[in-house]
Every structure is written in structure tokens, then in C-alpha cells.
Amino acid sequence: NDIEPSPDPQAFAIGEEQFTRRLQHEHAIKASPGELWRYGTRLQEEVTEQLAEQASKLGSSSWRELIDRLREDSPAPEELIGIYRAEIERACRFVTERDLVNVPAARIEVVTTPGHLAPMVPFAAYEPPPIYLTGRSGRFYVTKPNAASARDVVAQQRQGHCRHAIPAMVAHEVYPGHHLHLATMQSGGSEVRRHIWSPFMVEGWAVYSEQLMAETGYYPTAEARLFQLVNLLWRAIRIVVDIGLHTRGLTPADAVEYMVRHLPIEHSNAEAEVRRYCAWPTYQLCYAVGRRELLSLRDAYRQRHGSQVGLRRFHDELLSYGGIPVSLARWGMELAE
Questions:
Q1: What's the CA gap between 128 and 104, in Å, rounded?
Q2: Which of 83, 110, 302, 312 is deepest in the core (most CB within 10 A)?
Q3: What is the dihedral of CA 161, 166, 171, 172, to 10 degrees?
Q4: Neighbour order of strands in the sheet with 107-112
């Protein structure tokens, strides 16, 4: 599982010029790699401080040790499907009752991950509804720990379903995250907006959704809020590593060590992450940077329409633009900077 050395260990790096070009032409992001790298490092520092504060409230001097302990609290494998279904139903009710955004009619099925997909879905994953089928429903796959695997593998699989992490996962993947967004996008009248999307909007919306649910009181415990902050820290570090690998001479080995040092992540999982970052420049930073731009857009919308304007009005108008880059939605909403 080690990252294989090559004659030129930086051969994968596309360089600052091409990185900037991708930011501008694929995601319509005006900010430079340097500015985004500074934002990522600042966000990493801020969230790390928040994690320490949250852990202290829970009686722990180390948020990482607390996370390690909490990960041992996971449902029995035979309970997983029912627990995920219940949490998805709770999230849907919460979004509806708080009138946060219109909930489309598309159903969500919670199913055990098929055997042929299990190697690619270690814990859980979302599959959107097919665009042109009339009975549209998304699928939320849950990979149950395999009792036939080695004991340490089963333990890691169970930790991936830590009950305290499930609320943030559901907010990101289902309501009001990917499922709600993509089902809304697919029900739109514009063929362009049904098909053309950028991770800057789609992944940005999912991370924004995690924060939105924190702002409106969805997370039932301080422990669940802690895991939402861990998710945000992970996305901040993605900015730093993505830009570092492709424009600042960061080697894959150093990137792995950076992630292991700053995140509660296994070495093998960090290696898999870094391989993806090397192969897919600019995608990984879209999560946290997209969240930043959506928060900025929300502020501009409220400044234009009044601070008392409902969240649903903003969210419904935003999602009517589908998955196009945030800056283009901003332009369409006549809020361009």
C-alpha cells in the first residue's frame, strides 16, 4: 500500500500556472492558489482550536484521544441499516419543520452495499437518482463490517460507523446535502443545469449543509458536534495538501505524514487520500472553499434582501441554479462582487 517512488517524485504536480487555470476555467474561482492556501491554513488553525474547546467541555484535554474513545461506540452490524434510516428520517423532518429548504419528492433508499461495490465503499456512500427515470430515488449504501475479516479490520470498519459521526454524515450525504441538492437539480427544467456541475457548488453545498445543521440545532449531542468539526478540519487540510502537492513541492510521503499528524486518520487511509489528490488537482479544495463562498453569498443575499429574510428563500433560489459554480449563481442572483 506504500506510495511507489518514481524517478521524479513530483511528476504528478501540474504547477501553479495550470492549477490557477483549472481554478478559473473549471470552477470559476478567482482566488489564487496562494490566497486559498493561506485560507486553508487559517481555517485549519481555527477549527483545531474549536475542537480543543469542545473537547474541554466534554472533560478531555486532548480532542484526538477523545475522538479515538468515541469511535469505539458504534452500533452492532445488524442494527446499522435501521439506525441510518432513522437518522435520515430525523434529518428530513428537521429540515422540513425548520423550513430550511424545499425537500424534493425523490425517495432515498438505505440498503446494504452490494458485494461488488463493497471494496470501494468501506463505510457508506450515496448514489444519486438516475436523471431520466420517472421513479427517481437515490441510494444510501451502508457497508457492514465483515465478520470473516481480521479482527483489526473489523474494528476499523466498526469505527467508521461511530454513532456520534452519523448525524454529520447524513447531513452531508442526504438531507440537506447531496441527495436533496442533486434531486432538486435533476427536477429542474434546464437541461444545462441538470447536467453541468462543479464540485465547487456540489461539495461546497454538502459541507455548508453540515454547518447549517449545526447553526440550527440539529446535532443532538456535544459529541456529534465534535465530529462535525473533525469533518471541517479534514476539509481545511484538503486545501493545504491539494495546493501543497501541486504548487509548493509537497511530496506524497510528506503529505501523508501531514495528514496523519493533524487528523485522526489511519496511515493507509491517508495514503489513499493523497493518491486521489495527486490524480485530481483542485477537486479537494472545493469542499471547504465552496462552503466559504456559500456563506459569503448568504451574507450578501441577506444584506440585499434584509437580515430577516428566511433561509428557505435563499436556499431555494440558490439551488434553482443546480450545480454550476457558486460565482455564476452569485452573478445570476445579481449579487456579483
A1: 13
A2: 110
A3: -20
A4: 107-112, 137-142, 124-127
What are the Cα distances from residue 260, in Å, to 81, 218, 273?
30, 30, 11
pLDDT tens-place string over residues 68-124: 999 999 999 999 999 999 999 999 999 999 999 999 989 999 999 998 888 888 889
Q: What sign has the CA pseudo-torsion 139, 140, 144, 149?
A: positive
Q: Residue 128's CB: how many other CB atoms inside 10 A?
A: 18
What's 111's DSSP letter? E
Widest pairwise Cα distance in the chain? 59
Q: In a 10 Å sphere around its CB, with 0-12 CB exposed, 13-18 middle and 19+ buried, how is residue 269 labelled? A: middle
Q: How far apart are CA 209 and CA 175, in angstroms?
A: 8
CA distances from 18 to 7, 26, 123, 239, 246 (A): 22, 11, 34, 16, 9
What pTM was estimated for this model as a whole?
0.93
- CA dist., res. 284 & res. 238, Å (int): 6
